[in-house]
TrEMBL record:
Organism: Bifidobacterium simiarum
Alphabetical UniProt keywords: ATP-binding, Ligase, Nucleotide-binding, Protein biosynthesis, Transferase
SMART domains per record: GatB_Yqey (SM00845)
Protein's name according to its UniProt entry: Aspartyl/glutamyl-tRNA(Asn/Gln) amidotransferase subunit B
Main function: Allows the formation of correctly charged Asn-tRNA(Asn) or Gln-tRNA(Gln) through the transamidation of misacylated Asp-tRNA(Asn) or Glu-tRNA(Gln) in organisms which lack either or both of asparaginyl-tRNA or glutaminyl-tRNA synthetases. The reaction takes place in the presence of glutamine and ATP through an activated phospho-Asp-tRNA(Asn) or phospho-Glu-tRNA(Gln).
Subunit architecture: Heterotrimer of A, B and C subunits.
Family annotation (InterPro entries): Asn/Gln-tRNA_amidoTrfase_suB/E, Asn/Gln-tRNA_Trfase_suB/E_cat, Asn/Gln_amidotransferase, Asn/Gln_tRNA_amidoTrase-B-like, GatB, GatB_C_1, GatB_Yqey_C_2, Gln-tRNA_amidoTrfase_suB_CS
Signal peptide: none
Enzyme Commission number(s) of this protein: 6.3.5.-
PROSITE patterns membership: GATB
């Protein structure tokens, strides 16, 4: 039976929402956290394994130094306190994709603690998200349920386990309860996740591709009558792997919980799952408390000692942070705050910058990524990065326009061909014969034909009324299959008018 929902506007008037995010970021190290097994997305199932990642008896873990350095860099970016001593612990629970029956994580002695992240909202407001910890742990494998709808376990007749992901290094960033979010709860969560994604990419520690599971979040939501009351019972929606999914999860949970509280029903402390197809959350299991995991220090791993000297070494390697980079690019590209915000909201900053690096002007790059390409992404309901067009392709189109080989119409047709999977811009141009007509004789004949077919327009142009010029240009473009240069057409028309 579908959950009863309260109108969102009414829910946030009657109750004070408190949210929390536990974000798992998969690190882009070459090998796993505790063994030399290679890490590669999309590999043949169960081929990236060692005795350690399979949890075989007698196998001993050895910490990946690069993963620890990545964690320190992220801690610095999140204004965390980097603990001199941190410790790995065993988090005990059974699940088929966890070959050891415990996860190696950090509990009471994490590498990073007590930080914050300032995020910018759509209207320019800065909101500070408090961070409790950013600790290191290894990932589980992946279950695939066969026979159930959409790969779910319900209705499946058997399941397959791929252990390639087991042991891949993660950093889990856990926020403190985020208060004062009100009606902007979903917006704040989305802005936080996007900012976090930009940071880990800037640090070059993760690909942060949510659709590939490199970055995913557990979303906590609770309601209370007012900010002066204790926190309400929270739900935790697990492994949401899209920005929109996170935002919609928060909105849905606020509406669902408000309706239950309004009817005097209790909120269960449980895990839930976001269903993209129905745009709803569904209950899972009753949420386990930390005590039930029986955390204890892993006896096979010594404590990590992170010296002040090593932290300073990591500080020296820190790159330009996203906000500094945005401010610099906004100045270099001569953009208004609104124009830059449009780029950020479209998730196009990296793509535009790469297009500029490939030789395009910023204005041209911005026009394509926020125009034709963005419309194609929206129509297919995918991200810009998932489309079969690269910054190098867009830069090539801009070069063809600048050289006079393509006009605007042909350029749009070329981009459409690339998006349709027909190849590079050069291949699309060659395949369809897209090229501006450079034969002035052919253009002049098309102009003469257009003027002869529209004598009334010709007379208006001769009298100095330039408004109907578009009629002639359109006729010439039609005659040349859009391959005439509009400027050349206008020049010839004016010579005929004055002559």
């Amino acid at each position: 039976m579908a959950d009863k929902l309260m109108k969102f506007s009414e829910a946030v008037k009657k109750y004070d929402p408190v949210i929390g995010l536990e974000t798992h970021v998969e690190l882009s190290t070459n090998t796993k956290l505790f063994c030399p097994a290679h890490v590669e997305f999309g590999g043949e199932p169960n081929t990236q394994l060692t005795p350690v990642s399979l949890g075989l008896p007698g196998s001993l873990p050895v910490v990946n130094k690069a993963a620890v350095d990545y964690a320190i860099k992220l801690g610095l970016a999140l204004h965390c306190e980097i603990n001199e001593w941190s410790q790995f612990a065993r988090k005990n629970y059974f699940y088929p994709d966890m070959p050891r029956d415990y996860q190696i994580s950090q509990y009471d002695k994490p590498t990073n603690g007590n930080g914050y992240l300032d995020v910018e909202l759509d209207d320019g407001t800065i909101f500070r998200v408090p961070i409790e910890r950013a600790h290191i742990e290894d990932d589980a494998g992946k279950n695939t349920h066969i026979g159930g709808a959409d790969g779910r376990i319900e209705g499946a007749d058997h399941s397959l386990v791929d252990y390639n992901r087991a042991g891949v290094p993660l950093i889990e960033i856990v926020t403190k309860p985020i208060e004062g979010v009100g009606a902007r709860a979903a917006e704040i969560a989305g802005a936080y996740m996007r900012t976090l994604r930009d940071i880990v990419r800037a640090l070059n520690i993760s690909h942060a591709r949510m659709e590939q599971g490199n970055m995913r979040a557990d979303v906590n939501v609770s309601l209370r009558p007012s900010p002066d009351d204790p926190y309400g019972t929270r739900s935790e929606t697990k492994n949401v792997n899209s920005f929109r999914g996170i935002e919609k999860t928060i909105t849905y949970e606020i509406r669902r919980q408000a309706a239950r509280l309004d009817e005097g029903k209790e909120i269960l402390q449980e895990t839930r799952h976001w269903d993209e197809s129905t745009q709803t959350t569904a209950g899972g299991r009753v949420k386990t408390d930390a005590d039930d995991y029986r955390y204890f220090p892993d006896p096979d791993l010594v404590m990590l000692h992170i010296t002040k000297e090593h932290i300073e070494e990591m500080k020296a390697q820190m790159p330009e942070m996203p906000r500094e980079r945005r401010n610099r690019l906004q100045k270099e590209w001569n953009l208004t705050d609104l124009q830059m915000r449009d780029i950020i909201n479209a998730d196009a900053l990296d793509l535009i910058e790469e297009t500029v690096k490939a030789g395009a002007k910023a204005a041209g790059a911005r026009k394509w990524w926020l125009g034709e390409i963005s419309r194609a992404a929206n129509a297919k309901e995918v991200s810009l990065e998932e489309l079969p067009i690269t910054p190098a392709d867009v830069a090539e189109v801009e070069k063809l326009i600048a050289s006079g080989k393509l006009n605007d119409k042909l350029a749009k047709q070329t981009v459409a061909g690339v998006l349709a999977g027909e190849g590079t811009p050069a291949e699309v141009v060659k395949k369809h014969g897209y090229q501006v007509v450079e034969d002035t004789g052919a253009i002049e004949k098309a102009v003469d034909d257009a003027l002869a077919a529209n004598p009334d327009v010709f007379e208006k142009l001769k009298s100095g009324n330039m408004k109907p010029m578009g009629v002639i240009i359109g006729a010439v473009m039609k005659a040349t299959r859009g391959q005439a240069d509009a400027k050349a057409v206008t020049k010839i028309v004016m010579s005929k008018v004055k002559g």
